[in-house]
TrEMBL record:
The chain crosses the membrane at residues 16-42. It is a multi-pass membrane protein. This is Uncharacterized protein. It comes from the Bacteria. Keywords: Cell membrane, Membrane, Transmembrane, Transmembrane helix. One of its GO terms (cellular component) is plasma membrane.
């Protein structure tokens, strides 16, 4: 395959170019026709519109007397200026929204591809997942889902049932930028596990204000007061429970490549007996 990009055939572009020029000329004539006529009306000359045609553009440089006789040129030009400004102000949001919706970088998803993550799409998913929001007309953003970014100024949110994978360098703010905001804004209960204290220190105050906060910190990493305990060996009161618990320990202690080791296989029946 050639590394050079394939150019556009002029024969394919020409019809669209002609259509665009014609549409632009039509809009310009409409603004001049309406603006000049409104200016004449405001000046007291009454509603006297000239013929609507493209020749209006050709006659305008020679003055406004031919199309609006007896009307002060200042009134005509003022009406055209006001009409043009109002049309531009009304068209700008439409053009901006269209650009956001249809624009995309090569190889990347556009806003149309991400419609399920837009505010409207996230609210639709939230109504489906949470019956309490099914009849809500306006759903607060944090109730709809987790903020994961933006596309051309439009917020993108995933639902609270989605799984997020963040690939970030060490000390790049994973906890403060992702974990803590998600835990603080979650509308329901949160189970947060971390081996660092910053996850606790950044979330304990706002989560405590919403309900009871349970902290399991046997190694005193956070130096938090512990008012509950979890007995990891409570399940090992039967042989079956001990076997199941030992299976978890063995699976975590050895990698997949080591599971064929003789000693690993041999410890499986022995560990449950040590209870």
């Amino acid at each position: 395959m050639s590394g050079e990009g394939r150019g556009h055939d002029p024969a394919d572009v020409a019809p669209w170019l002609i259509l665009a020029v014609t549409a632009a000329a039509g809009v310009l004539v409409a603004m001049i026709w309406l603006g000049g006529t409104l200016g004449a009306l405001v000046s007291g000359a009454g509603w006297r519109p000239p013929p609507f045609s493209l020749t209006l553009l050709l006659r305008l440089p020679d003055g406004t007397e031919q199309d609006w006789p007896g009307v002060p040129p200042l009134a005509v030009w003022s009406g055209i200026a006001v009409t043009s400004g109002a049309t531009t102000a009304l068209a700008a949001p439409v053009v901006t929204a269209g650009y956001r919706w249809f624009s995309r970088n090569p190889g990347l998803a556009g806003l149309r591809d991400l419609r399920g993550l837009t505010p409207r799409g996230a609210a639709k998913v939230a109504r489906r997942l949470r019956p309490s929001l099914s009849g809500a007309k306006n759903i607060p953003p944090d109730q709809a889902g987790m903020l994961i970014g933006e596309h051309n100024g439009v917020e993108l949110r995933g639902s609270w049932e989605d799984v997020y994978l963040a690939l970030m360098a060490p000390r790049s703010g994973k906890t403060t930028a992702l974990v803590a905001p998600m835990a603080i804004r979650a509308p329901g209960a949160v189970l947060l596990t971390s081996r660092k204290s910053d996850a606790y220190t950044t979330t304990w105050a706002p989560r405590s204000a919403r309900g009871h906060l349970w902290v399991f910190d046997p190694q005193q990493i956070c130096h938090a007061d512990q008012d509950w305990w979890w007995d990891l060996l409570a399940e090992a009161i039967t042989v079956e429970g001990a076997r199941r618990l030992s299976g978890h320990f063995i699976a975590c202690a050895f990698s997949a490549s080591e599971r064929s080791n003789y000693w690993v296989a041999g410890c499986r029946p022995d560990v449950p007996a040590l209870r």
